[in-house]
Amino acid sequence: MPQKIVKSKIIFEGEIVETIGEVSTEEYERWGANENLKVVGKPVSRIDGYDKVSGSAVYTFDKILQRMVYARTLRSPLPHAKIKRIDISKALKVNGILDVITFQNTEDIDWYWNSSKLFDPHLRYQGDEIACAAAETAELAEQALKLIEVDYDELPFAVNTKKALESDPEKLTGFKKPDLFTYDRGDFSKGISESDESVEDTFTTPVVIHNPTEVHCSTVAWDGGKLTVWDSTQAIFSVRNAVADSLKININDVRVIKKYMGGGFGSKLEAGKYTVMAALLARRLGRPVKIYLDRREMNLAVGNRPDSHQTLKVWGKRDGTITAMSYKSFGAVGAYPQGAAANWPFRTMYKCPNIKVEDQNVFINAGRARAFRAPGHVQGVFALDSIIDDFAYKIGMDPIDLRLKNYAEVDQVFNVPYTSKLLKEAYSAGAQAINWDLRNKIPGSGNGVIKRGIGMASQIWWGGGGPPAHAMLKLERGGYLTVISGTQDIGTGTYTILAQVAAEILEIPMEKIEVILGDTGVGPYAPSSGGSQTIASVAPAVRDASEKMKSKLISAAAAIMEIPEDKIKYNNGEIESIEDPAKKLSIADILKELREESLLMNGSREANPDGYTTNSFGAQFADVSVDTETGKITVNKIAAAHDIGRPMNQKTLENQFHGGILQGLSYALMEERVIDESTGQVVNLNMHDYKIPTVKDVPKIEIIIVSKSDDLVNNVGAKGIGEPAIIPTAGAIANAVYNAIGVRIKSLPITPDKVLNAIYKFN
Amino acid sequence: MSKKKGISRRNFIKGVGTGVVGSYVVVPALNNKAAKNLSDNEELQLKEGWQVLSLKVNGKKIITKVKPNTLLVDLLRNELQLTGTKVVCNQGECGGCTIILDGKPVYSCQMLALDANGKEVTTIEGLLLGEELHPLQQAFVDEDGLQCGFCTPGQIMAAYGLLLKYPDPTDEQILNGMSGNLCRCAAYPKIIKSVKAAASRIK
Ligand code: FES
Ligand code: FES
C-alpha cells in the first residue's frame, strides 16, 4: 500500500504543529471545477436531516440509560476564595441523594495543565467547581447541593482586565504573570523614517460566550473496568485521553461516543471536568450517571472569547505603501492558563516589512477563555481593518485600493507562498455585490436622520487541515457502503460531505451510503472538529480509501471475468470490459462471487505540500443604516466573498456562512458578558440578558465563492469554511458605521448608547 | 440515517399507552400505607402530593402521576421519553421546548405538567405519520433549515403553530411567528425558507 510515515506540519489555530504520522503517498488526478463532478459541490441534503427534524436524533442531552442517575455541580459563588470548611452531611440526608464528591473524598486529579485540580479548594472565579452530587433525579441533586455548607476565606479579586494587569497576578490567582509575547520583523525605525503619515488608535472588544443550544453534558456508564462516555464534544479523542489519564485507566477501556451535538463553536473542544466527575460518581455508585450544566453554568464556566485591548499604529507613504506597523495588546484569559492573543491577522494580512508586536495575556477572576470560532482573528481583524481604513481615509485613498496596494503575495511570517490566494478576486466580487461606489467618499457626509454607510474588512485563516486523518470503508453485500472515521459532525455537514466524496469516486448512489463518525471505539483517528480542519483533513482520506477500493474492485473483476486489469474500466458504479462492454459486473455481483460479506479499505490524508502555507481568504462588505437620533444600527446587507478552495456542498456551505456572519453581526452589535466589578458577579447569565440574534436580526446576505479548488492543499481541493465565515463581519460593520456617521466607534459591541455618545462628542 | 422503515411509531405508542392506563387506574384510591400495603416509593409519592394527570399526547391518551411541580417538558422528556422536545434555557427565553398545546405553540418549560390536564399536546414526534415525515419536517430537510439540529424541533413546532393560524403566512407573520425561537447556529435564513416552502406545499 502506498502509505508512509512522514513528518508533516499543520497549523491549528495559530500553533504550528509538527506531527509524525501515517500519510497516503498516492497522487490523484485533481477534479477540476465542480461542474465536472456529479455529487461533490452539489446542494445535497444532509443525510442526517431525517433524524434531526423527526426528533429521533438522540443527543447526549437526550441519552437515557437503565438505572441512570443524575449529577449536578456546586460552583463557587465568589470570584476568589479558599474553602475553609465544607460539610456535606446535610446534603447526604436528602431523600434520593446517592453521593456527593468534593476535594475531601476524591483523589487529586490534575486539571488545566497541572495548574489546578479537578476539585481545587482554591476557587479562582465565580463558577469554579466545589462539589458534585448524584441523585435519583436532577432536582434532588440540586436540592442536595443547596444543603452543602461551605465556609470561605474571601480573597482579593479583579474582573476588570486593565485593573488585573496593574495588580499582582499572584494575589489574584496564585499564578505568575504570563510571558509577554513579542514578534518583530524588519527594521522598524527605518520603516517609520520612510513614512509620510501615520494613524494610531486603541480598540477594545468584549468577552463573549459561546452559548451552544445543547448544554455541556455527558452520560457515562461503567461495565466493570470499562467506561463508555456519551459526550457532547467536538473532540472525541481528546475527551477519551483526558478521561483515561484522569482516572488512570487504559485508553482502550474508555470509549467516547458523540453522534449528534447541539453546537460547540469551540467551547466543546476540550474535555470537561463534568465528564470526569460523572465517571467518578458512576464508579462509586455502580450506576450510569448523566451530568449536565444549566444555562447559567454555560455562561459562567465553559469558556468564552477573551476580550482585547489593542493599540495599533500604521505608518505609510502618501501613495498608500505601508512602511511600518506596531501592535500592542492585552486580553484576559480568565482564571486559568489559556491564550488571548489576537495578533495573527496583524502579522500576515497586509504586506508590511517592518512590524513590532507585543501581546500580553492577563489572569482575571472570571471564567477561563476557550477557543471560540476563529479565536483571535475576529478581535484582530476588527482592530486591524479599522486602522487600515483610518489610514486610507487619512491619505484620501479608496480603502480597497489601499488593501490592494499592500497585498501580501506570500506568508510573511514563514516567508513561503500560499497554496492559493484569491483575495483580489474576493475584493472585486464583494465590492460589486455591495455597490461599493455608493459609499460616502467622505464618511458621515450623508444627509438626514438615518445615515447609510458601506464598509468592508478582509479575512485570513488556516483551515487547510493535514495528517493524521484516516477513514475506513466497508463495502457490503448488495453494494452498500459504510464510511467510518473518528472525526465528528458538529452540525457542519461532515456526515454528508464524506458520503458525497465516496459517492463521487465509487459512483454509488448516496442512498446506499452510511457514515459512522464520533465513536472512538469504532473509527480510526481523525482530528477534532475545530480550526476549520475537518473536511480538509478527512475528505481526502475518504477519497484515498475510495480510490483504493475502486482498484480492489477492478482487480476482483479481473479475476472473476478473467480479463487483464488494464482491459477493465470502472463505469458508473459497474466494472466492465473495455473491449466488450456487455461483459460487466456490478459491485453486488463481485461481492457475491467473492463470497465475502464485506470488502474493507483504509485511507489516509496525504502530507501537506512542502514549502507552502495554506490559508483561506475573503472579504465581507456591510451596508448599514444608523439612526442618528436613537443610535440604532440596522444592517441592510452583508456581501461575503471568499476563497475557500472547493465548495463541497452548496447547501451546508451557505448555512455555515449564514451562521458565521450572524454570529459576527451579533459580536459587532449585541453580545457582551457583563461583570459587576465590585462584586465580581456576572450579571447576564441567561439568554434574555445575554443577547444573541433572532430571526428578525437577519440582513440580506449574499455569498460569493471565488475559488473553484485549491489543487495544492489536498486531493479534494477543499479548505475549511466554518471560521472564515465569522472573521471579517464585525470589522466590515464597524467600518460601515464609520462610513455612515463619520465618527469611529472603537469598542465593540457598537450599541446605541455608544453611537449617540460618539455623535454627541463629535459635534 | 437514511429514511427509516418499519413499524409505525403511532401504533407503537398506542400499544404502550394502553399499558400505562391499566397500571395507574387504581392510584387515586390509595391513602394509607399500612392499610394499602404501600411501597416506599408510593409512600413518598403520597407525601409529596403526587397527582393523577390525564392528557392526550400525540393523539394518545396518557394517564399518569406527577409531582405537582413537574414541568410539562420534563414529563414529556423524562417520563414519556419523548426527547425530541429539547431544553435549552429552561426559562422561557429560547423556544427550544416549543410544543403545541390545544392548537397553540407554547414553551413547555414554562408550564406545569398538571396545567396540561385534560388538554392535547403535540410534540415533534407527533408530526410523523408512522416513520413518514410531515411535509413541514421534510421542508426543513430539503431547504437545510438547520445545522446542529438542536433548536430544530422547537423551530418546527413554532412553524407548525404558525401555519395552523396562518396557512398562507406573510413574511412579517413568519418573522413574528418564528422570533421566539433562538438558533445559535443562526440557520435563520434557511429556517425562513423552510417555513415558506412548507406553507406552499401544504396549501
Ligand atoms: S427551553 Fe423552554 S424556552 Fe428555552
Ligand atoms: S441548528 Fe443549531 S441551534 Fe439551531
Short description:
Chain A is α+β, with helices and mostly antiparallel strands and about 775 residues long.
Fold blueprint:
The complex is a heterodimer of chains A (763) and B (203).
Chain A: E1 3-12, E2 15-24, H1 49-54, E3 69-75, E4 81-87, E5 97-101, E6 110-111, E7 116-117, E8 122-123, E9 129-135, H2 138-146, E10 149-154, H3 161-166, H4 169-172, E11 181-185, H5 188-193, E12 197-205, E13 217-223, E14 226-231, H6 236-247, E15 254-257, H7 273-285, E16 289-292, H8 295-301, E17 308-316, E18 322-334, H9 344-348, E19 355-363, H10 377-394, H11 399-405, E20 410-411, E21 416-417, H12 423-434, E22 450-461, E23 470-476, E24 480-484, H13 494-506, E25 513-516, H14 534-561, E26 568-571, E27 574-577, E28 584-586, H15 587-594, E29 598-604, E30 616-627, E31 633-643, H16 650-669, E32 675-676, E33 681-682, E34 700-705, H17 729-741, H18 752-762
Parallel strand pairs in A: 3-16, 14-15, 18-19, 24-25, 31-34
Antiparallel strand pairs in A: 1-2, 3-9, 4-8, 4-10, 5-9, 6-7, 11-19, 12-17, 13-14, 13-16, 17-18, 20-21, 22-30, 23-24, 23-29, 26-27, 27-28, 30-31, 32-33
Helix pairs in contact in A: 10-17, 13-14, 14-15, 16-17
Chain B: H1 9-24, H2 33-36, H3 40-47, E1 51-57, E2 60-66, H4 72-79, E3 98-101, E4 104-107, E5 120-122, H5 135-142, H6 152-165, H7 171-178, H8 188-202
Parallel strand pairs in B: 1-5
Antiparallel strand pairs in B: 1-2, 3-4, 3-5
Helix pairs in contact in B: 5-8, 6-7
Bound molecules: FE2/S2 (inorganic) cluster (FES) (2 copies).
